[in-house]
Structures are given as structure tokens and as C-alpha cells.
Amino acid sequence: AAGTVPRRRPPRCDMGRGLTLLLLPLALLAAPARAEGGTAAAEEVKVEVLHLPETCSPKSKKGDLLNAHYDGFLASDGSKFYCSRTQNEGHPKWFVLGVGQVIKGLDIAMMNMCPGEKRKVTIPPSLAYGQQGYAQGKIPPNATLIFEIELYAVNKGPRSVEAFNQIDKDGDKKLSELEISQYLKEEFARDGKKRHPSAHDEILADIFKKNDHDRDGFISAKEYNVYQHDEL
């Protein structure tokens, strides 16, 4: 029925262009923000909505914690370079949107997306892996990428502005590892979705790696808000 998010996931990704999602393992993250010569301004992410459920709420925004599946293809020949269903025992991927955990083109492509929505997105090299490509991911230089994405869940992320005071239990305007760990556990328990046991530790470690700039074991209000700027 329309608006229903599929629960059963096929064990393989060789079903043609099965609607799935994206987010190469956290290794395939950082990418150049623009192409050489400043051409990125003339390039943009192309988004095609393949399925939009009748109920579209909440829509994804920067700082949200998303859960999705995806396939990645090279636009040049249609070859598939990644399938999330063959990784991590087929579990959908969790990541925080809009903070650089994925290539910039994906952060842009997955904004304002609702649970159950499916998209096909085309990302130019300047918003993906640029002139250097990504050899480990079998992505050549100057490659335009296509992702087929299926979004399962949109949760309030641990980096949203609204979450800071909830996480900061002792009100000292800085977040400890214990405070953020407890927040993640509460959020995961609230939505009741099954996750790989490693998801909690991976997200916690990534938050501190990207936000604890002075490496003092705490994330200050200033450090926490590093990514709270206008849309990418």
C-alpha cells in the first residue's frame, strides 16, 4: 500500500536497479567541496523522486540521524560500485545528514526526504570524488555518480541544535562522552528499530572525532555548533 515502508530486505543487490540507498562505509566520506577551476558553482545534484509515500513526515534536515539502503553506479557505463545490502549483514546504514559524513552531493541530495521515499540522484564529480577519484571504492577520476536511495527512518540526530540541552544533563554547556552515549541509547530505544551492535560505538566515536577539536574529551557548545550553518 502507498506510504508503507518495506520491511523485508533482499539478501543481494543484483535485482536490476532495485531501489536502494547510499552511503559508502564511513571510509568513503570526505570529498572535495568543489572541482578545480571553481566549476562547482555551475554544477548541481539532480534528484528524481521514484516513490513518495502518502504520509511524508518528518522530512529530513541537517543534523537528523537517517537510516537507509542504497546502490551506487558509475554514470559512464552503469556499472555498480557499491551495494549497502551486501555490507554489515545487510543492515541499512545510519548516518547524520549534512555534517560531512558522506560526500557533499549526498548531503545535498537527501535533504527534505521522508521515510519511505525513494530517489535516484545524479552527482557531478565536483560534489563527489573530484579529479582524484577513489581507487579503493573503484571510482575513477572525474566520475559522475548515480545513487538509488531508499530512506527508512528520520530521527532527531545527536548533533541537532534542539538536542544540545537534552544531552547536557548537568547543564555545564559541554557534552561528555557519557552524556552523548546515553542520548544515543535513549533515541535508539525510542524508535524501536533494530540496529547492528556496532552502530552506537561507531556514531559516538565519529561525533567526537569530528567535533572535539581541542581533544579534551568534551564537546563544548561552540564545538557542537560547528556544523550549524546554512544549507550546503
From TrEMBL:
<keyword id="KW-0413">Isomerase</keyword>
<keyword id="KW-0677">Repeat</keyword>
<dbReference type="InterPro" id="IPR052273">
    <property type="entry name" value="PPIase_FKBP"/>
</dbReference>
<dbReference type="GO" id="GO:0005783">
    <property type="term" value="C:endoplasmic reticulum"/>
</dbReference>
<dbReference type="InterPro" id="IPR001179">
    <property type="entry name" value="PPIase_FKBP_dom"/>
</dbReference>
<keyword id="KW-0325">Glycoprotein</keyword>
<feature type="domain" description="PPIase FKBP-type">
    <location>
        <begin position="63"/>
        <end position="155"/>
    </location>
</feature>
<dbReference type="InterPro" id="IPR011992">
    <property type="entry name" value="EF-hand-dom_pair"/>
</dbReference>
<dbReference type="GO" id="GO:0003755">
    <property type="term" value="F:peptidyl-prolyl cis-trans isomerase activity"/>
</dbReference>
<dbReference type="InterPro" id="IPR002048">
    <property type="entry name" value="EF_hand_dom"/>
</dbReference>
<feature type="signal peptide">
    <location>
        <begin position="1"/>
        <end position="35"/>
    </location>
</feature>
<feature type="domain" description="EF-hand">
    <location>
        <begin position="155"/>
        <end position="190"/>
    </location>
</feature>
<dbReference type="Pfam" id="PF00254">
    <property type="entry name" value="FKBP_C"/>
</dbReference>
<dbReference type="InterPro" id="IPR046357">
    <property type="entry name" value="PPIase_dom_sf"/>
</dbReference>
<feature type="domain" description="EF-hand">
    <location>
        <begin position="199"/>
        <end position="232"/>
    </location>
</feature>
<keyword id="KW-0479">Metal-binding</keyword>
<keyword id="KW-0106">Calcium</keyword>
<keyword id="KW-0732">Signal</keyword>
<dbReference type="Pfam" id="PF13499">
    <property type="entry name" value="EF-hand_7"/>
</dbReference>
<keyword id="KW-0256">Endoplasmic reticulum</keyword>
<protein>
    <recommendedName>
        <fullName>peptidylprolyl isomerase</fullName>
        <ecNumber>5.2.1.8</ecNumber>
    </recommendedName>
</protein>
<keyword id="KW-0697">Rotamase</keyword>
<dbReference type="GO" id="GO:0005509">
    <property type="term" value="F:calcium ion binding"/>
</dbReference>
<dbReference type="InterPro" id="IPR018247">
    <property type="entry name" value="EF_Hand_1_Ca_BS"/>
</dbReference>
